[in-house]
Each structure stands twice: as structure tokens, then as C-alpha cells.
């Protein structure tokens, strides 16, 4: 029997542009820092004197936030914003570079930019440009990954990036300068190479996924013309890959075909598990400490948390979906786990009650935010372009616009699944709350009535399960997710009760522990 889970919204933030990438800083001592990237398609300029139409311009913004749990209602504070080209991916290096945290940013000009974090105070640190690599003209940099996924710095430090021309680009970072050097560039896919990722256990090996529906492996010590393997197991474009930092031979991949596949990298002919998540899988993130928990950004169907234990130890054919955070009128793109250790939600609620503002003040502030939003959306005519789309979406006053934040008294509605079910059996919804100031009321969060269902259709009991789980040990995590079209960054808490070892396999995996069959 799997453990009960629940989720609770902490804060939502209006990012102004569509948010598609979010990453918590993994460097020790800097876990409270969060970066978020946005993507916006400016409408074409008016027809020029020669009669030709202007081209659309992709622009974006990089946000830097500090998370402080001592601020219960608005734990996330913006500390920096940088106007940039449109951002398609953000990844922090897992270890300091030249004694500073460093982040890589893949953007719409075909460049990968690197910035380091300066300053000693967490609430006043700043990102400063360090260096950049131009991948080539007329292309978008689509993804990047660092070779430091196990939080151990190899020598040399490397970065792999993919682009819209189907190419992979391998760099090395010289920490002494610091500076970047291009090691190799090669054509990996006939269409967009949506994703590239390292094998964290053997960083000479990289994986790539493309719009040609192919998943490929590459040994960077060999000639790049020939992949180590090519898999056609996905039926549509492969857009997410992540190697497990806990288990040496475990790889997760996701695709527009709405399936998450788990692989034993020693046998890439057939996946260990195939889970249908009902939406294109844009990002996958393994939990930083629970080696069997996987977070998936599933575009049309929101964000899902998967339990992969059965697939790893018992070779079951499908992972269990523990929780689902469903959005409306938007696409789920960015997702990441924080390495912070949050307080127990009951204690946090009691502490917050002593210092919280009155309900009347919260409602008044929300109504004021709603009035500002109403003014902003009058006669709205905006051109949207998803980073994964080949077409533009035009929204005007006659069409259905992006989802707007709710009033505070309505509260965010978030599925709080007390027990896991498989993909097709779970239905949940989450409406976000908060205005342009980013202030959401976590105290008003409540479980959706359309929660987890048993196969026979009977709703799973909530109150009894929740009460029984209060005294049990918990795995508590802070999650940041972001979505396209509604321009929202979400911060929420996920809790999973840990049952006794006699009831289920160990839930935490210290370095080196493996499941049977995966070494």
C-alpha cells in the first residue's frame, strides 16, 4: 500500500510573460534562491514602407527570488529581474564555479548565457553575466544540462546544450578564468533537438531527444556521427530526459506522446515502465532525496508526481501517480524540487495564525488586484507562441483568455490526494490565487472535491486518512512550477506520509543504495 499524500499552495506570482522554466539553486547554502525564466512573442511591427510585414520578436525576462519560510503568506520575494531574449531553459550548476553558484540560460537568440551569483546576503544577492556561447544564427537554444548532477564536480566541468537545428553542443567550463570552451557540435536529429542530458554516472555519455521521435545516446569520446543507441519507443517528439542522481542505471524520458518511460540504461531496447500522464511531458525532475519520486510537467494535464518504486524493484509496467496539480487555460512547462527542508504544515499553520493579517484585509487587497487585472485585460489582443508550437495563438476580447487569479475568499483549489492511483483514475484541479503582487493566501488552500477515485468510482476517504497520517513521519518538499499563457509561477508544498519499513520498502536512498536489478 502506498503512502498518503497531500499538497498545499504557498504562493502564486504573476510573471507578466509566459513562464516556462524554473529552477531552485542546488548549491549548498543557497537553496533558498529560485530562478524563473519567461517567454513572450511580441506582435509584428506595422507594415513598413516597402510593404513587407515585420517579424515577431521573442523577448523574455529572468527573475531571481528568495524564499523565506518565516514569511508565511508571501515566502517568495523578488530580488532581481533582468530583461533578456526569450528563455527556453534554465539550469544551475550543482556545485560552485569559481566559488560562486552559476546558472546557464538557453535563449531564443541561439545562445547559452552563464551568470554567477554574487553577494553574501541571500535576500540581496544578484546575478551577473559571466560569459556566453553563440550556437549559430537563426536558431533557438532549447535546453542545457550540467555534468554535475550527482553534485560532484568532475574534471573538466561540462555542459551539453541542444538547439532548434537538431544539433548538440558540448562545452567545457574553465573554473580558473572562468571561461567556456566549445568541445564539439554535431547534428543529432533531423528536426528540433528538444532536450539534451548527461548520464550523471558517466559524463562522457549524453542523451538527446528530438522532434523526429527519436531518443539517442552518445559517447562523446567517439565520432559524433554514430550514436551508441537509437530508440524509437516514443511515438512523438522526445522533449524531456533526466538521469537519476541516485541510481546508476536509471533514466527517465518523456514525450509529446504523453508517456513517461523509465529505462535501465544497460538495456535500451525495452523500457522498465510506461506511464500515460495525459499530457506532453516537457520536463522531468527526480526528487533530490527520495530516489523513487519523479516530478513531471505534463503540459495540457498539469504537474504530476510519480512513485517509481514498483518499476525499479518489481518491474511493474506502470508507475503510480501520487499527486496531480491541474491547471486550466495554460500549459505546464517548468517544474523543480527545492532542497529546503520545510517545517511541518500543522506547526507552520499555527505559527502563521499568530501573525497573519485579518481576512478582511486579504480580501480587500485581492479585490484591488482584481480591479487592476480587469483594467489590464480590457480589449486584450496578444499574440502568444509556445516554445514547442509551430503556430501562434491570438487571443482577443472575443476569445477565451488566460485563466485569471481568483479572489482570496475563494481560495486556491488544489487536489490533495490522500492515496495514490494510476494515471487514468485520478482527476484533480487547481485554481491559482493571487494578483500581480504575487500574494496568494496559503491558509485558504483546500482540497478539490474531485480528488482521487478508486477504480470502482468510490471517492477515497480524506479526513480519516489525513488524521491517521498526522503523527506518521513525512517527506515534505517545496515545489516550484510555472505555466504558459496564464503567466503564473506557483510555489507549493507536497507531503507524503512515510509508513513503517515493515509496510513498504525504504523510501530514502543514501548514496549507493540500489533496488534489486539496478546497480
Report a brief summary of the structure.
It contains four helices and 32 strands. It is mainly beta and 519 residues long.
What is the spatial order of strands in the main beta sheet?
1-32-31-26
Assess the beta-strand content as a share of residues.
35-45%
Percent range of helical residues? under 10%
**What structural class do the secondary elements suggest?**
mainly beta
The shape is: globular
Number of strands: 32
Q: Count of DSSP helices? A: 4
Determine Rg (CA atoms, Å): 22 Å
Largest sheet: 4 strands, antiparallel
Instruction: Quote the distance from N terminus to C terminus.
Output: 25 Å
The poorly predicted ranges are 345-360, 369-384, 390-470, 505-517
The overall average pLDDT, rounded, is 78
Give structural notes:
The protein has 519 residues and is mainly beta. 8% of the residues lie in helices and 39% in strands. It is built from four helices and 32 strands. Strands 1-32-31-26 form a four-stranded antiparallel β-sheet, with no helix packed on it. A hairpin with a 6-residue loop joins strand 22 and strand 23. The two termini are 25 Å apart.
Q: Layout of helices and strands, plus pairs?
A:
Elements: E1 5-14, E2 18-24, E3 33-42, E4 57-67, E5 76-85, E6 87-92, E7 102-107, E8 111-118, E9 126-134, E10 141-146, E11 157-163, E12 167-174, E13 179-187, E14 195-198, E15 205-209, E16 215-219, E17 229-231, E18 238-243, E19 250-255, E20 259-264, E21 273-276, E22 283-286, E23 293-297, E24 303-307, H1 309-314, E25 320-325, E26 331-337, H2 345-355, H3 359-377, E27 382-384, E28 393-395, E29 413-414, E30 446-447, H4 463-469, E31 474-484, E32 488-497
Parallel strand pairs: 29-30
Antiparallel strand pairs: 1-32, 2-3, 3-4, 4-5, 6-7, 7-8, 8-9, 10-11, 11-12, 12-13, 14-15, 15-16, 16-17, 18-19, 19-20, 20-21, 22-23, 23-24, 24-25, 26-31, 27-28, 31-32
